[in-house]
From TrEMBL:
<dbReference type="Pfam" id="PF02990">
    <property type="entry name" value="EMP70"/>
</dbReference>
<feature type="transmembrane region" description="Helical">
    <location>
        <begin position="413"/>
        <end position="434"/>
    </location>
</feature>
<dbReference type="GO" id="GO:0000139">
    <property type="term" value="C:Golgi membrane"/>
</dbReference>
<keyword id="KW-1133">Transmembrane helix</keyword>
<feature type="transmembrane region" description="Helical">
    <location>
        <begin position="373"/>
        <end position="392"/>
    </location>
</feature>
<feature type="transmembrane region" description="Helical">
    <location>
        <begin position="529"/>
        <end position="557"/>
    </location>
</feature>
<keyword id="KW-0967">Endosome</keyword>
<dbReference type="GO" id="GO:0010008">
    <property type="term" value="C:endosome membrane"/>
</dbReference>
<feature type="transmembrane region" description="Helical">
    <location>
        <begin position="600"/>
        <end position="628"/>
    </location>
</feature>
<comment type="similarity">
    <text>Belongs to the nonaspanin (TM9SF) (TC 9.A.2) family.</text>
</comment>
<keyword id="KW-0732">Signal</keyword>
<feature type="transmembrane region" description="Helical">
    <location>
        <begin position="490"/>
        <end position="523"/>
    </location>
</feature>
<keyword id="KW-0812">Transmembrane</keyword>
<feature type="transmembrane region" description="Helical">
    <location>
        <begin position="277"/>
        <end position="299"/>
    </location>
</feature>
<feature type="transmembrane region" description="Helical">
    <location>
        <begin position="341"/>
        <end position="367"/>
    </location>
</feature>
<keyword id="KW-0472">Membrane</keyword>
<feature type="signal peptide">
    <location>
        <begin position="1"/>
        <end position="25"/>
    </location>
</feature>
Length: 639
């Protein structure tokens, strides 16, 4: 019996994949370009202070920097708030294509507390992030090995060093900023577009001869009238309580051939691109080769089995049958904890839908890095909307298991994974709050997240569950015996723990190279942009999860072990264990995190990511195995 129902578990997966198949990579700008005439004001905005050592962002004005007359917060989207972005105005205001030298911003006298905070931020290698026309500030650095220029996001708050002849380590603040604004001028008009924003920071102990006259004071250490400019940090400004710090800046403008549409190329080429591409392609080729081999073996073996079973004519031959046909009366017996399996399958389908839709939008360029916070906002909103698929999938499976309390299974689907994720997130957020970091999610945002959960996601799960439960139950292709068959003793290599752990290696192998770049973008604050390759890796992940689960499920059934439900889920889901182990390896080999709180944050978030990966890969494996068992048992004649 080839019932159309055999594909229903994977219906959401197949439909969404078909929609995404023709997707091609082209760039759509995140914002519309802005044109500036000569003399137009350019407002520089400041963003959070970041450090790869602590992973705890802070607001710019948490340090004793110069402040404008009134601090105005820019409107941030949900993703920006969750990332810890706090975008505010600054006292740095330029005029388009009008260079300025030795401009005084302010003079500040720091107290003991402020000096201590500055020293801590310099010790932890915090960087200051600024934005001009939606373009982040970068520091050009020349690589000695290749004699090429690479760009680092933001400039360091300061640096540590010693005075000549002294071994005592001192802290110096970067109080002079030499900005360079690159622009592309329109040939037909006097309008220009900003295509680059760079800075060279210096530490200078400024001096002045006459009395202090605010921003009009004439400095002896930086005086354009005397052709004296800041070009080095030979006389640095030390961070010490009670000392005055004069903040200054230069701004120059440079005509550039870079067009506005290509201005983000500088930021996206921060890493070694060739290694990235070669590694991913190499990984994909290996996985595709293995997948092809596995598929070929499976098709040949199955074809032989089905042909042999269908040729059995006598009753004696039928009684002597071996292999997977022998357990046809038990293979669709509901498993233990079937309710929990339904919940996890529904949540996995929700994850699959979220990732696929988000990835398609990212490949099309709608979620480019210029759209700050757009990726996280999109993922949250699509996750909420995919609650419909979660409820539908879990209730369809639940009804097949002869379940009747659909409201109970709906509540579990709506609250199990989101509840666990929210508890972990709340604990980690409390730790960030304790460190007074801007990365702590405000109460209003937390309330908005709860509102999305209870106001949209939960009702959609109920709607999906209601629709799924109304449909007729999926009927198995063979009848289930009333008395369970005894499972014979299994060989050591068919031990559940062994096969589950082996099954997770191939799916993890499909993603681990791309995982390195994803972790680097998250924890080393680099831009991630190759969504086309990520989409390919995702497709390969689906194929490998499905094939390795089907192969191991086939071997299990041939060994007359019919308890495949949970094992199929755990086989591909075990790749999450390798993901977490790799995350631990990455922590100890690539990161320089020393603070306990920062370490807890890292492992807390990676635990959450691994749990989500378990639900996703487990569901893919289960759906593939569910389709496979229905297919093979509907292909043979059962007396």
């Amino acid at each position: 019996m080839r019932a159309p129902a055999m594909l229903r578990c994977a219906a959401a997966l197949a439909v969404l994949l078909a929609v995404a198949a023709p997707a091609a990579g082209f760039y759509l700008p995140g914002v519309a370009p802005s044109d500036f005439a000569k003399g137009d004001p350019l407002q520089v905005k400041v963003n959070k202070l970041t450090s790869i050592k602590t992973q705890l962002p802070y607001t710019y004005y948490s340090l004793p920097f110069c402040k404008p007359a009134s601090i105005v917060d820019s409107a941030e989207n949900l993703g920006e708030v969750l990332r810890g972005d706090r975008i505010e105005n600054s006292p740095y205001v330029f005029q388009m294509r009008e260079p300025k030298m030795c401009q005084i911003v302010c003079k500040a006298t720091i107290n003991e507390k402020e000096a201590k905070e500055l020293k801590e931020k310099i010790e932890d290698e915090y960087r200051v992030n600024m934005i001009l026309d939606n373009l982040p500030l970068v520091v050009p650095v020349t690589r000695q090995d290749r004699n090429t220029i690479v760009y680092q996001g933001g400039y360091h708050v300061g640096a540590k060093g010693q005075y000549a002849g002294s071994k005592e380590e001192k802290y110096f603040i970067h109080n002079h900023l030499s900005f360079k604004v690159k622009y592309h001028k329109d040939d037909d008009s006097e309008l220009s577009r900003i295509v680059g924003f760079e800075v060279h920071p210096y530490s200078v102990k400024h001096q002045f001869e006459d009395k202090w006259n605010g921003v009009d004071t004439r400095l002896s250490t930086c005086d354009p009238h005397a052709s004296k400019f800041v070009i080095n940090s030979d006389n640095p400004q030390e961070v010490e309580a009670g000392k005055e710090i004069i903040f200054t800046y230069d701004v120059s403008f440079e005509d550039s051939d870079i067009k506005w549409a290509s201005r983000w190329d500088t930021y996206l080429l921060m890493t070694d691109d060739q290694i990235h591409w070669f590694s991913i392609v190499n990984s994909l080729m290996i996985v595709l080769f293995l997948s092809g081999m596995v598929a070929m073996i499976m098709l040949r073996t199955l074809y032989r089995d089905i042909s042999r079973y269908n040729q059995l004519e006598t009753q004696e031959e039928a009684q002597e049958e071996t292999g997977w046909k022998l357990v046809h009366g038990d293979v669709f017996r509901p498993p233990t904890n079937s309710d929990l399996l339904c919940v996890y399958v529904g949540t996995g389908v929700q994850f699959f839908g979220m990732l696929l839709v988000t990835m398609v939008f990212a490949v099309l360029g709608f979620l480019s890095p210029s759209n700050r916070g757009g990726l996280m906002t999109a993922m949250l909103l699509v996750w909420v909307l995919m609650g419909l698929l979660a409820g539908y999938s879990s209730s369809r499976l639940y009804k097949m298991f002869k379940g009747s309390e659909w409201k109970k299974i709906t509540l579990q689907t709506a609250f199990l994974f989101p509840g666990i994720a929210f508890v972990i997130f709340f604990i980690l957020n409390a730790l960030i709050w304790g460190e007074k970091s801007s990365g702590a999610v405000p109460f209003t945002t937390m309330f908005a997240l709860v509102l999305l959960w209870f106001g949209i996601s939960v009702p959609l799960v109920f709607v999906g569950s209601y629709l799924g439960f109304k449909k007729p139950a999926m009927e198995p292709p063979v009848k289930t015996n009333k008395i369970p068959r005894q499972i014979p003793e299994q060989a050591w290599y068919m031990n559940p723990i062994f096969t589950i752990l082996i099954g997770g290696i191939l799916p993890f192998g499909a993603v681990f190279i791309e995982l390195f770049f994803i972790l680097t973008s998250i924890w080393l604050h680099q831009f991630y942009y190759i969504f086309g390759f990520l989409f390919l890796v995702f497709v390969i992940l689906i194929i490998t999860c499905a094939e390795i689960t089907i192969v191991l499920c086939y071997f299990q059934l041939c060994s007359e072990d019919y308890m495949w439900w949970w094992r199929s889920y755990l086989t591909s889901g075990s790749s999450a264990l390798y993901l977490f182990l790799y995350a631990a390896f990455y922590f100890f080999t690539k990161l320089q995190i020393t603070k306990l709180v920062s370490g807890i944050l890292y492992f807390g978030y990676m635990l959450l990511a691994s749990y989500a990966f378990f639900v996703l890969t487990g569901t893919i494996g289960f759906c593939a195995c569910f389709w496979f068992t229905r297919l093979i048992y509907s292909s043979v004649k059962i007396d």
